[in-house]
Amino acid sequence: MFRQAFINEIKFEGANTRKLLERVPLNNPAWLPHEKSRNIEQLARHVANLYSWVTYIVKHDDVDFSKGPALPPMPETKTTESLLSHYDETLAEAIASLENTTDEEMMKMFSMKNGETVLRSLPKAGAIRNIGLNHLVHHRAQLGVYLRLLDIPIPGMYGPSADEK
After folding, report:
1. Is it the case that residue 106 has pLDDT exceeding 90?
2. Spatial distance between the Cα atoms of 24 and 114, rounded to a whole number of angstroms
3. 123: which strand partners?
């Protein structure tokens, strides 16, 4: 039940996210809308890598941030094509990890720790929703604002956008 629901959602939302990433201009990677913001390349790379959390959560029972980043560093993405290639890989890995697990595994607890301090524990299904999917949608929306500020047409996500007739 959980697995298939997540697979269906990831396939649908994954296609929407890809439409947005296709429009990211990497000709000015340092552009940022505000001094406290990430630059457009950093944000696009983060969005392209977020489905890696789904795979990580399915395969692990915890993450300990005191040991450094949980996810491997993302490869260089100096072109839109390399950004999309990495995104497509992480998306496919997330779907495959869900296809190869069970709903029972999805109900096992996943803990976020910083050394001995447990920051949060919740079922893997909840961790996937929170750390993987909600996190992705949050940053995807930020990326849409970046594109709007650059006057780049925004693709429709759930129907036509204001830029599509």
Report:
1. yes
2. 34
3. 109
DSSP structural state of residue 61: S
Instruction: Please tell me the pTM assigned to this model.
Output: 0.93
Angstrom distance (rounded) from CA 80 to CA 86: 10
Asked if residue 139 lies in contact with residue 43, where contact means CB atoms within 8 angstroms, the answer is: yes
Which structural domains are found in the chain, ordered by start?
Answer: 2-26+33-149 (1.20.120.450)
Phi and psi at 79, nearest 5°, equal -125, 160
What span, in angstroms and rounded, lies between the C-alpha atoms of 62 and 31? 35
> Which DSSP string corresponds to 89-113?
HHHHHHHHHHHTS-HHHHTSEEEEE
Q: How confident is the model at residue 61, as a pLDDT?
A: 96
Q: In whole angstroms, give the CA distance from residue 33 to residue 53.
A: 27
- pLDDT (tens digit, 9 = 90+) per residue, 40-60? 999 999 999 999 999 999 999
